[in-house]
Design goal:
The protein has 104 residues and is mainly α. 60% of the residues lie in helices and 8% in strands. The protein has a domain of 71 residues. Strands 1-2 form a two-stranded antiparallel ribbon.
Length: 104
């Protein structure tokens, strides 16, 4: 078993992969929410009695824009985290991983 340390992260590569994953998850989880809002509109008994129509669904561009903004913010935060690791790890210690040889 070999103990190895992660010396540094490729900041832009890590941030790019993380941003794509976060944007995909945001789109994946928002899709059923938007579909359910379209199928079952919100009706408030106080502000809209049954004779009034329900609240309109939020615009589609919000649900298209949110994953993009989530991906951008994820890119920035992951890039910051990787950069901080690269700057601070020589002083405070690096992440250690343990590797073993495959038996296949």
């Amino acid at each position: 078993m070999n103990r190895r340390e992660i010396k540094s992260f490729a900041v832009l590569k890590c941030a790019k992969i993380g941003a794509v994953i976060l944007a995909a998850f945001a789109a994946l989880f928002l899709s059923p929410i938007y579909i359910s809002i379209l199928l079952f509109p919100i009706r408030s008994a106080v502000s809209h009695p049954p004779s009034h129509p329900p609240h309109p669904a939020p615009p589609l561009f919000f649900f298209a824009l949110f994953p993009l903004l989530y991906g951008i913010s994820g890119f920035l935060m992951i890039a910051l985290a990787c950069w901080l690791y690269n700057v601070l790890s020589p002083r405070f210690g690096r992440i250690e991983i343990e590797l073993t040889d495959s038996v296949n």
